[in-house]
């Protein structure tokens, strides 16, 4: 009787697995090339224009110094930060309140409202750009006053992104709300004292998403600021340096700016990674 | 401590489904009322309406002197223990118990005193610093009860509080609830589907089916004089045996004839039957398994049966059999006085005869299920009485469940 091998994987399975890993590694490398390229260009000191090679001949902080001293980069950075922070607060508050209300309260038209918001969310935002621009212009919130205008735009439609937070709230037993209401808590107090402390992952996820969306937005910011440099955010400001007339003098400065823009987002993601994953998967697995 | 009065209370959902029909009950001060019935009978809905967690579609609920129909739960001065405990997971046991007191802005000293007192009563003082996830099921249930008793509410509501515990712990906690009730002396409304809990805890029991109240009475009343076939079958384990019987009258006395065995009905039933106008030709005779007595074959007025299964329960044997007329019957035979050989002989038996303990029988109208000797007995609701088309209802119920989940 021949001896049968009891290995965990057959040769064929192992070969398939190796092929998958190689494929994924290649994908990772392709994915990382632009970032690595950006970092190299940001520290390139020998020239400021686009070149055909990757590794800098001279390593330098020149581009960062130029960015700080000769351009309004930090002003744009501040604009972006203000918009992102305000949006993080406003959007999170709106999303969480809408999600909680839709999760817990039963009222006429609830289902219709949820479906309506879902369908509305399927249309790309830029369809309403022109109308939004004229409305903001009426209020004087475009051009040099674009910062509050952009905050208003980002926060206004945020309630429609309630789905993930609602999924999370649905997993918290309703009897907790009921117990607190019997204990003497109002609806608002139930939300803040009972539900919020239990919803940390989804709060953090919502805040992160609300911060990131305006941080990298180009389309709306470009339209609403309408060429007024003092109101630019980083995406619009940096993009201007890729014009035909600027690119030869500003390409490496653009890369340095891009690197600085990615720092807060990367830090945010890395520090809150645990909560982020919990928030995204919470509604799905606890169902 | 207060009386609770429910008058014509009705609960109808938006889809037309009526969960509770015309519920009337007066709960006395410090009384322990148990609502019991199978799943979907409306007992939890009734409790939640008293708590204010469900709107009332019709009728009136009074707690003490106040009509509370539109009152928020927090203003009703009630406390509730939930089936899943509903402890706040991010708070310690101490904070869980103190939460209601803090919302009422009591001074810290008083809160501390009350929390410690409640913890002392429930024997959870050493757990006060822990979080709910660090507690066992029984401990969590104690904390949930602590959170409820600390406020000394007018009415104490419990929604199947022992259902999530294992059998041993359930027995222990049941005894503790009886002791707790002695200590805190308040009005209790307790929901369960477990008839043992209902029988052991309740001063009075309300039995419900399909949203209707079937009978309200003491455990003894319900057990000895069930108002209808549903109550008779629901209370008691194993359930009551039912036989088709013919009534014969001799003078003022009635006799029920079951498969040629003549069973003389007790005087109180005869009196009740005499007062009735027309009696049905055939009635249903109910006799509990412990009231069927084994006898020798050929005994006068004995019914013979063929054994199908015997269950050895330790101190008693349950005999599942079929009578000569093909009716299923269960006997509960005490075996404390039998020798091992006698017990073995009984288990091995194929045929046997039994008589019925006459003073314990009940007589029901097979049409509407009412006990003919109980005044104002409720009829067993028929499916056709449901106001919504049953097929439609099934769909709507499924739809509602889906809706609730979403």
Description:
- The complex is a heterodimer of chains A (about 290) and B (about 400).
- By secondary structure, chain A is mainly α.
- Chain A has a single domain, classed as MetI-like (MetI-like fold).
- Chain A has helices spanning about 10-40, 60-70, 75-105, 110-120, 130-140, 145-155, 165-170, 175-185, 185-200, 200-215, 220-225, 235-240, 245-270, 275-285.
- In chain A, α7 (about 165-170) packs across α14 (about 275-285) and α8 packs across α9 (about 185-200).
- Chain A starts with 10 loop residues before the first helix and ends with a helix.
- With about 400 residues, chain B is of the alpha+beta class.
- Chain B folds into 2 domains: about 5-225, P-loop containing nucleotide triphosphate hydrolases (Rossmann fold, 3-Layer(aba) Sandwich); about 240-380, OB fold (Dihydrolipoamide Acetyltransferase, E2P) (Beta Barrel), CATH 2.40.50.140.
- Chain B has helices spanning about 45-50, 95-105, 110-120, 135-150, 165-185, 195-200, 220-225, 230-235, 265-275, 340-350, 390-405, and strands at about 5-10, 20-25, 30-35, 60-65, 65, 80, 155-160, 185-190, 205-210, 210-215, 240-250, 255-260, 260-265, 280-285, 290-295, 305-310, 315-325, 330-335, 350-355, 360-365.
- Chain B has a 6-stranded mixed sheet with strand order 6-7-8-3-9-10, with helices on both faces.
- Chain B is globular.
- The interface of A and B includes residues 182, 186 and 189 of A.
Order of helices and strands of chain A: HHHHHHHHHHHHHH
Domains of chain A, number? 1
Q: What portion of the residues of chain B fall into strands of 2 or more residues?
A: 25-35%
Low-confidence stretches of chain B: 384-401
Number of strand elements of chain B: 20
Roughly what fraction of the amino acids of chain A lie in strands? Answer: under 5%
Q: What is the residue-averaged pLDDT of chain A?
A: 89
Question: On the 0-100 scale, what is the average pLDDT of chain B?
Answer: 89
What general outline of chain A do the C-alpha atoms trace?
A: globular
CATH class membership of chain A: Mainly Alpha
